[in-house]
Amino acid sequence: MSRPEDTLPPDLFYNDKESQKYTTSSRIQNVQANMTRRALELLEIGEPSFILDVGCGSGLSGEILSSVKQTDGGPHMWVGMDISASMLDIALQRDVEGDLLLSDIGQGTPFRPGSFDAAISISAIQWLCNAESSEVNPQGRLSRFFNGLYASLRRGGRAVCQFYPKNEAQRTMVSNAAIKAGFGAGILEDDPGTKNSKIYLVLRVGGGDSQGDITNVVRNMRHIDVQDARRKSAAPDRREVRKGSKAWIMHKKEQMERKGKIVKASSKYTGRRRKTAF
Known about the structure:
The chain has helices at 10-13, 16-24, 26-43, 60-66, 85-93, 138-152, 168-180, 215-218, 246-258; strands at residues 50-54, 77-82, 99-102, 116-122, 153-163, 184-190, 198-204, 224-227. With 278 residues, it is of the alpha/beta class. Strands 3-2-1-4-5-7-6-8 form an eight-stranded mixed sheet, with helices on both faces.
């Protein structure tokens, strides 16, 4: 059975029929509710907060955020963003409590810096890993998303993204994009090795008491893989990079990739000087 993201872009796949089918399925409702509660558990929010729901769909996760009891640190206010107009239309029909925004997360998150206390994303960011055409760069879309998410969270804020990577390469690509954006990142897998396996990317914005360290977020959790992108304390390398050298070219290509531009693949010939032709 093919994965939905391998067939069509999300705004085309989730048309009126598919959106209605997704929202009314009792199995999907239960799975979505369980994953949202797990994401809230990983966020460790102890008080009512302002939360961004990335890929909110028809508002199934948002309903959980709004229904958190006061004794459990809720209820939470939330804003949902999604690329599917059909999904958001159903959310409006269901009269969800959050505000809704039609937007492509691959183009970033259009909010003021530090707007949100936390963010969740359920079964959404794997859509960014697919290229529907040669002009689409998955690394660039992931970079824009995580850079925008990092900016929209307050200092010390957290985010939890549940996603379904196709393979280890996609899993690594997603976590590396989050790390490059500045997040402290950890990957948690529930029920590993089974068909019910669920992967959560736990993120932390620098600041607060932990200075970006997510150790407390994932402490005592099984099957955890923490990736720390913070630079080790060492004297900076102040050697000047010569313009046109391989190091200079690789640095420029990396800058262009971060901006979402299409960059030719590097090879052993990258930066090699050509012989003068007579």
